[in-house]
Structure formats: C-alpha cells, structure tokens
Amino acid sequence: MGKNILLIGFMGVGKGALAREIVRCDGSLYALDTDDMIESMTNTRIKKIFATAGEEAFRALEQKTAQWLAGNVSNAVISTGGGFYKVKNIKDIGTVVYLKADFDWIVQRILNAPNAKKKLKKRPLFQDIERARSLFESRYEEYERVADIVVDVMHKEREELAKELLGEVGCRS
Ligand code: S3P
Among residues 41, 81, 123, 144, which is most buried (max CB within 10 A)? Predict the structure, then answer.
C-alpha cells in the first residue's frame, strides 16, 4: 500500500488546514481527519463523547480508528486529534509528521480565527487555558519522540510547508 502522511500535534496547531493544503498541492492524495471519522462512526460529536462516555472511551475509539487506517488506507493525508499520537500502531499508518509550535502561538492562532468561539467550544480539553498549557507541556516531548519528521509551523506559510512535506515524504506531485 502507498504510504500515508499522518499529521500530529497539539489542538489548534493547524493539522486539518495543512492536510487540506497538501491535498490541494497533490490531487492524488485524499484528506482524512480522525476526529471526523470518529464523529461519523459514532454519530456523536467529540464534545458529547467526552461528556457522556468519557475520555477513556474516546481514546479507545481513536485506537479503533488507527487499526482501521493501518489496514485499509493508503495515499491519504490524515489529520489527527491532539491525543492520537498515543495509539499503539501509529507507525503502521504512515509517515508521522509533528507540527511543532509554541503554546502561546497556538492560543493566538485560535483566538485570531474568525470562528474562535466555536473552535474553543468544540474542544473539551481546551476549556481552561492553564490546564491546556499543562497538557501541552506534558506532551510536546512525546510528539517529537513519536514523529519521523518535525516541522516548525510558526515561521512558514502553509503552502511552503505543504510543498516541503510532499518532497520529503516522496509523494507524487
Ligand atoms: C484532543 C484533541 C482534539 C480532539 C479531542 C481530544 C486532545 O482534536 O481529538 O478533543 O487530546 O488533544 P484537535 O487536536 O483537532 O483539537
């Protein structure tokens, strides 16, 4: 199977937007998003899954999604939820790319978005900024450890990043 590109990183760093940009650059790839897949599979919003079934149940759904992706999907750029990097078989899915940014940059990116309120509301783990900061601090080294490629998203345009990644992971153009 052709390799996938898997985008990991903290909430709000721009994984979905970069996935869409990559697919715009290379029409032979498909964009998928693990949160969207989980919402379709369960017919339930992420926020509601957290509120009713709890975080552990959500993590199990992420693992189930990872299993399916590894066995069935190729030629895709897959944006993931901020905690997806914890799935056991991540390397079986594709080349893991960590979108790296500082926490304060991420907060500004979310707050400057035209739909900032909506972006925050749908993220149960971003309800309290200091808690989100601690979560970020507990994770950033792990993201780097899991990744095959680390890209700094703070100092480059999305289009440039997309082109770089397409070159680096050897996708068709
Ligand atoms: C989470 C990130 C969210 C979503 C869920 C949990 C996390 O996705 O999967 O709310 O643990 O960081 P985004 O990274 O797209 O916000």
Answer: 81
| Tokens encoding 127 | 């309800």
Of 123, 127, 134, the one to substitute when testing ligand 1's pocket (max ligand atoms within 8 A of C-beta) is 123
Pair of tokens at residue 123: 């993220």
pLDDT band per the 50, 70, 90 thresholds, residue 171: very low
* Ligand 1 binding pocket includes 81 (Cβ within 6 Å): yes
For atom 16 of ligand 1, the residue with the nearest CA is 11
pTM over 0.90: yes
Closest approach atom of ligand 1 to CA 15: 15
Q: How many CB atoms lie within 10 A of CB 108?
A: 13
Every domain of the chain and the residues it spans? 5-159
Q: What is the CATH number of domain 5-159?
A: 3.40.50.300
Number of neighbouring beta carbons within 10 Å of residue 169: 17
